[in-house]
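Bug #2210: token dump truncated for Lysine demethylase 7A?
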Amino acid sequence: MAAAPLYCVCRQPYDVSRFMIECDICKDWFHGSCVQVEEHHAVDIDVYHCPNCDVVHGPSQMKKRNNGHRHDYTEPDDGSKPVQAGTRVFVKELQNRTFASGEEIMMHMKGEQVTTRYLERHGFNYPIAVTEMEGLGLKLPVSTFSVKDVEQYVGGDKIIDVIDVARQADSKMKLSEFIKYYTNPHRPKVLNLISLEFSDTKMSELVEVPDVARKMSWVENYWPDDSFFPKPFVQKYCLMGVKDSYTDFHIDFGGTSVWYHVLWGEKIFYLIKPTPANLALYEAWSSSPNQSELFFGDKVDKCYKCVVPQGTTLLIPTGWIHAVLTSQDCMAFGGNFLHNLNIGMQLRCYEMERRLKTPDLFKFPYFEAICWYVAKNLLETLKELREDNCPPPTYLVEGVKALISALRTWLKREVTEPTSEVPDHIRPNHLIKELTKEIRYLEVRWDKEERIWERVRPFLHLMQVFMSALRRQRQTAKVPSNLDILEQHTREVLRRLEVGPLEEVSKVVNNQVLPDSCRERPTSPSTEEAIQGMLSMAGLLCSSKPEKVASSQEPWWSSSSQCSPLEQREEAQHQHRLQGDTSPMDSQGNSSEAWDNQGLPSPLSRSHGSSPETDYQYCDPSMSPPHPSKRHAPNPPPISNQATKGKRPKKGMATAKQRLGKILKLNRHNRVFV
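Reproduced locally. Full output below:
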């Protein structure tokens, strides 16, 4: 067996994980760490001389910079080629561009308001900016935490991926080398670090993700501890970028939602809504050969600019297309999470990544495996809700439908692409079948409920219209005055008696000769007193104030010196019932409260149970509490004007016509006008 060839000054075999560079003279390969050549510097070398050839042929020759707007800066600056993303010219032009304000789509909330319950009710479809951290559950280092502190907690030997912004290309280097570059005031190029995941380091103890991200995360809730696949760690990232760092438009891997917090410095986000049209444009733009020469923000209707200053947390929903510019040296923390609210969009983004042949480095680890775990758990959730007779939320049902379709597609793909991520303890076909049964049950149930609602909805609409009209009437209604009540009662009596206008019956009711004492004209009462007297004798008095026990001056209608003996006796009985009778029951065993409920409200019921806006409903006098001296006898026989045949009815059975005569008798010598 032939021995493996040895390379470099260290005479070691080839290691794919270590960067190596070839000498253009001797054609030998050398590890960059052995000859002090960093990977991001190697692209700037035109002709490389190894340490052995350097002695004879001199130092290596560097590339000559000819332009500042192309990824290959050696191209001639003749203005024939457009500006490419990330270059110095591009960043300067980007800062001078005008964009729609991010306030149009940004939701500003307090930390305590951003909860799982809120997002489940209102959805997670727009970015959320949080400036008051209390209640968010986010734990971070102090604002004086520096890049050297990061090196101390994570370790300088950790290999990291950095982005050369001017070339929009990534390269590997040690964290200690990046920290040395970051702290150097003279930086030959712009490097950006956005993928330092530190969950497995000591720095993880200093950071706790927001509660909403932790509680909604698929990885935290559904990934089993005994899984064959390694658990994805995507919740804790440290981002360190220097001024003018730029990340071009992208969608976070797997359509994950993301949280950012700027510890110090400032970042500017350029956000685009994930509409079907914008997603189609994004896929076409990503697959175009001249992608770096086209600014994607110019291809869509609106691109929103959102500035995220120090101390602000930003949550970006699933599928939002965004680019990021670091306007000043900045350190930020962030994380990604999959969740149940936007399952369909997450699956669409994943399939887009497959079509674009995105490298595994930039994809969500074991995305299909976690989808199988989620499907198993959601099946149990749907069964529990069905047993409890609780309908699942709409977003969950739609998400399960999208998940079923994706799982079927992946099973069919296994025939031609045997890269299965189906967990061993899951029966894929059985799981899909059970999920489909649950969805069909819900669809049948909803179809029945919809048919019922189609029948009930018109009645509910009419009821809503009626209640709205009643509410408006109550708002505009006024409490009727005593004069209004008397007028309404008199008109109703006249209508029943088929009598003409009130003025036609304003004549002398009784022509008999009265005693002199009664011929004397009583003291003219005020209008209000006259109305109250007439209402009292008609059994319609509805005072809003409780009656006084004693008064220094008696009302004019109760004066014994102005009335006949019969009326005095009736009035005495009336006063006896009002003041002396302690029983609330009448001769028929009916309480006064029953009368109040049937007819006009009593003063007591008004003061305790009725609002001033209560509408006055006219009630026939036969349903109103009669005058105390004219209460009905127990179980009276039915009586009408025709039944009496012109005879005087028994006491307590006065007809409506006689009641009207009682009202008109108040002033025998003058006309009565209402």
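Output looks complete on our side. The first helix runs from residue 32 to 35. Marking as cannot-reproduce; reopen if the truncation happens again.
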